[in-house]
Amino acid sequence: MKLHLPIYHLSGLSRNNCRLLEKLGINTILDLLLYFPRDYIKYRRVKISGLQIGDSATIIGKIKKHEIISPPKNPRLTIQTLIVKDKTGSIACKRFFNHPYYQSQQWRNEQISMYVNGSIVAVSGAVKADRYYGRILSSPEIRLIDIDEARDTKNSIIPIYPLTKGVSNELVQDAVSSALQLLELLIDPLPQDLRRKHGLMELQEAIAFIHQPPGESQLEAARRRLVFDEFFYLQLSFLLRRHQLLASEAVTNIAPVGPLLEQFYSQLPFSLTSAQRRVIDNILNDMTSKTPMNRLVQGDVGSGKTIVAVVAVLAAIQSGYQAALMAPTEVLAQQHYRKIATWFEPLGVSVQLLTGSTKTVKRREIHAQLETGELSVLVGTHALLQEKVNFHQLGLVVIDEQHRFGVQQRQHLLNKGNRPHVLTMTATPIPRTLALTLHGDLDVSQIDELPPGRQKIHTKVINQGAPAYDFIRHQVIQGHQAYIILPLVEESHKLDLRAAVVEYERLLTEIFPEFKVDLLHGRMTSAEKDEALNSFRDNKTQILVSTTVVEVGVDVPNATVILIDHADRFGLAQLHQLRGRVGRGSHRSYCLLLNTSKTAEAKARLEVLEKSTDGFFISEMDLRLRGPGVVMGYRQSGISEFALANILDDEELLNLARSMALAIVKSNPNLEQHPLMVAELKRWGLTSWNCALN
Ligand code: ADP
Ligand code: MG
């Protein structure tokens, strides 16, 4: 189809401009049509005499004068001035350019021939004070229009595109305009009756209006349609996939009861919360049904997800299968391994740990035992994905902190078994809308209750270190322990790491010379990490200075205070996770957030943590403040593709998209009647998993 042709087939686009557009990832005509504005500026039309400094407005008038100069003092700068006049007065419209391109004679000639005296223009911009002219329209949008348009224009909405160096908004606007000429070649995959029924605008029209909205209501309707599409195809792909999964028989037959589970329950030192019991029921139900389980367990930090996973593991093992548990960091994998090993030893279930730093001899032994089936449970990091890791009969895959892994990695581990059951867990609870968007193909269970007796963690935002150090000293003297977290965001960054080590030495020698202070970071060898954690766990170390490697999993109940340095650099969800390192025992616990930012926003953001301990609320605030892309990372497919949708505010459209996708999959699971939707799924890159559609 013509829309898939490269943009240089468009008339009126120079080679140079095509190359500039390619910098934005725009290669084909279709890319251009789907390159949506990131924002709009809305201008009210006013008479020139009515312009006030500080206004944003559109004026319409005739060009009286046009000049382009470079001031001798600053020859790299190009200043374009148009004097525009209407019946009530005149105003200077000034634009400033400092890219070499605007020095070229070619550009000047183009401009001079475009904006000739007497032409009618619509100019939209901000009114600013000017030493020479009194007031000017500063860096405005200028559009040539005809008399009819001049009469009809009341307000104007100017699209603002995402840009990069050397690419101007005007260039994109012009290119889009010429691509829009070919819009009629685009066919809407959504049948008309469905569109009508749900008040969705036709696709061609929506694309035209998103770029060139004649008014607010058309823009809103266009956005509604396009946001719908963003949700719809993602949900469609999830539901198709789920449909296939349900159609496939589970080969893994699990018995819900057995001696192993009974023995395990009887040796548990506490009783399960009702939320844990409910989720375990969900899981055992899934595992004993005819189709493979694909379930996500969400539970706030400390809600006790590990036990729930362990029950699933035992269920698989007592039915003769093996289980794998993958965690995103070595520290967390080790922690799981240690816990699981102590629980499983009396039950006679074999467990091993496999990480990047497992020694060769050990690794070979594990590989061999896995293949014979001698080894029942393998806990580890990404190392589990290695080619040499082969199971005799893998029946269950558990992935902890699953949002840290990509879809591919998850799939890779699943492929090591024959349609094994899958249990994923996350401690970053997310709102339902986002859960549907990210994991629309999963069943979701919530552990929405903490084990009894948990302390509220007293949280305070502070702006000086010294009182915090005194507070820590006081806690340690009482026999407790403390974490101090340093803002090493990127573990691999050498400079960051050095700064962390310097700070550690300061704490060690200057602040806390009387205590044993230890350092933990991601670049230490596994033996070193082990030693640091063990000695902290055994209270041989009182203060553990650490990077975010302790963010998840580390469980030392005697630790009662956590000080987070440069807390303003972390996301709220992450701070909430870090805070969960304390308050794990029966002692009153504290979280001190050292704010080094002076902005009111940073303070307000951190204060959310003072007020709330509700992981869902906090993560929603985090999503609102920083955006889902940043919070969730870009690893999950789908979410980063959204140009227009706002996961938190477009819930109604998400629900509509999901229910329509559901209806379509029900009646037409291979999309035979919707070949255009198949093409659209391919365009969104959502079909790789689905052989039936290829
Ligand atoms: P998370 O959900 O953050 O992974 P964990 O599974 O690590 O939480 O559990 C946190 C702590 O709570 C562990 O020490 C665990 O043994 C304990 N725990 C789990 N369930 C219960 C319960 N029902 N009653 C008391 N303690 C529990
Ligand atoms: Mg956990």
Automatic annotation (TrEMBL):
Ranges where the Helicase ATP-binding domain occurs: 286-447
One GO MF term on file is: hydrolase activity
List the catalysed reactions.
Answer: ATP + H2O = ADP + phosphate + H(+); Couples ATP hydrolysis with the unwinding of duplex DNA by translocating in the 3'-5' direction
The record places domain Helicase C-terminal at 475-624
EC numbers listed for it are 5.6.2.4
- Please give the superkingdom of this protein's source: Bacteria
Q: What are the alphabetically sorted keywords of the record? A: ATP-binding, DNA damage, DNA recombination, DNA repair, DNA-binding, Helicase, Hydrolase, Isomerase, Nucleotide-binding
Q: Which InterPro entries match?
A: ATP-dep_DNA_helicase_RecG (IPR004609), DEAD/DEAH_box_helicase_dom (IPR011545), Helicase_ATP-bd (IPR014001), Helicase_C-like (IPR001650), NA-bd_OB-fold (IPR012340), P-loop_NTPase (IPR027417), RecG/Mfd (IPR047112), RecG_dom3_C (IPR045562)
Keyword Repeat assigned to the entry: answer is: no
- Which NCBIfam families has this protein been placed in? PRK10917.1-3 (NF008165), PRK10917.2-2 (NF008168), PRK10917.2-4 (NF008170), recG (TIGR00643)
Give a short account of what the protein does: Plays a critical role in recombination and DNA repair. Helps process Holliday junction intermediates to mature products by catalyzing branch migration. Has replication fork regression activity, unwinds stalled or blocked replication forks to make a HJ that can be resolved. Has a DNA unwinding activity characteristic of a DNA helicase with 3'-5' polarity.
Membership in a protein family: Belongs to the helicase family. RecG subfamily.
Query: What is the protein name stated in its UniProt record?
Result: ATP-dependent DNA helicase RecG
Gene symbol of the encoding locus: recG
